[in-house]
């Protein structure tokens, strides 16, 4: 049994892999994790019995907490993607080390599925849209505000706009403030994703496969054509990067 942990900015996602198959996954709000007892979220027995605990983090302070907790329950340090586990694909950006490892493991898992030029949309805290060429190399992409960030930003930066939870509006023309914010954030995000995917497709000069993931993917992609949603793409990518490393460096 192997445990993959994706430490993001809103949520931590935990996946349990048995015989290379993801058989359990759960998500905990970071804020909740810091308030509650870690043992309720990351079962000490699972941590101590796992063959490997593999981490991908884009949130260093929370990562430090998780590593400290894991250290109490198993003698080996967890394997960190991008540290002990090198990124097993070419990263063709200016500064490969500064690309979020969640974007990179998404690319690894997506390419494993498509074996084709691919665009990955991850709609989480941020919305990222990244290109992978048909050789499986990470090309770069875009980082934009996620829908919760957009809704919060409107509330925090204004005197009159309330905090609104975003759902799909029935109409584009909002008839009250709440509907107007929902429409702006929902249709704005959908339109942004559609447009950026089109632009990226042109720039990549190929017919890439589009894969979406992240907490808001199923909400947003209902209005985007030709997208396959893979809920646990990041966890799959963490596990895959680890397996690729093992294949290259058998113990
Ligand atoms: N049950 C849920 N719990 C938490 N967030 C949810 C849930 N359902 C939908 N969401 C949405 O998912 C988004 C967070 O997505 P995700 O879980 O991919 O974030 P994350 O992993 O922290 O992101 P990142 O890695 O980009 O920091 C939020 O915008 C929130 O609106
Ligand atoms: C963009 C996010 C926040 C998405 O989770 C993460 O991948 C990150 O913090 N990235 C670092 C900067 C970069 O990817 O270029
Ligand atoms: K994410």
TrEMBL record:
It catalyses: (R)-pantothenate + ATP = (R)-4'-phosphopantothenate + ADP + H(+). A monovalent cation. Ammonium or potassium. It is found in: Cytoplasm. One of its GO terms (cellular component) is cytoplasm. The keyword Methyltransferase does not apply. GO terms for biological process: coenzyme A biosynthetic process. It comes from the Bacteria. Keywords: ATP-binding, Coenzyme A biosynthesis, Cytoplasm, Kinase, Metal-binding, Nucleotide-binding, Potassium, Transferase. Its EC number is 2.7.1.33. K(+) binds at residue 122. The active site is at residue 102. Gene3D superfamilies: 3.30.420.40. It is an enzyme of class 2 (transferase). Substrate binds at residues 100-103, 177. GO terms for molecular function: ATP binding; metal ion binding; pantothenate kinase activity. Belongs to the type III pantothenate kinase family. Homodimer. Catalyzes the phosphorylation of pantothenate (Pan), the first step in CoA biosynthesis. This is Type III pantothenate kinase.
């Amino acid at each position: 049994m192997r445990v993959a942990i994706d430490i993001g900015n809103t949520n931590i996602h935990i996946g349990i892999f048995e015989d290379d198959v993801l058989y359990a996954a759960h998500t905990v709000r970071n804020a909740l994790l810091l308030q509650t007892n870690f043992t309720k979220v990351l079962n000490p027995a699972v941590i101590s019995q796992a063959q490997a605990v593999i981490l991908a983090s884009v949130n260093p302070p929370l990562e430090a907490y998780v590593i400290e907790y894991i250290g109490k329950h198993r003698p080996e340090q967890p394997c960190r993607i991008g540290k002990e586990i090198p990124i097993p694909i070419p990263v063709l950006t200016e500064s490969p080390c500064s690309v979020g490892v969640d974007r990179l493991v998404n690319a690894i898992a997506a390419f494993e599925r498509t074996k084709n030029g691919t665009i990955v949309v991850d709609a989480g805290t941020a919305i990222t849209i990244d290109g992978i060429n048909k050789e499986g190399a990470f090309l770069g992409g875009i980082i934009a505000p996620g829908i919760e960030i957009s809704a919060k930003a409107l509330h925090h930066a204004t005197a009159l706009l309330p905090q609104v939870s975003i759902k799909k509006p029935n109409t584009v023309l909002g008839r009250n403030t709440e509907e107007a914010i929902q429409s702006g954030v929902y249709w704005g995000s959908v339109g942004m994703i559609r447009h950026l995917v089109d632009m990226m497709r042109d720039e990549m000069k190929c017919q890439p496969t589009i894969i979406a993931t992240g907490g808001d993917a199923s909400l947003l992609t209902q209005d985007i054509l030709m997208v396959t949603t893979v809920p646990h793409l990041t966890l799959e990518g963490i596990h895959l990067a680890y397996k690729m490393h093992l294949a290259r460096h058998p113990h």
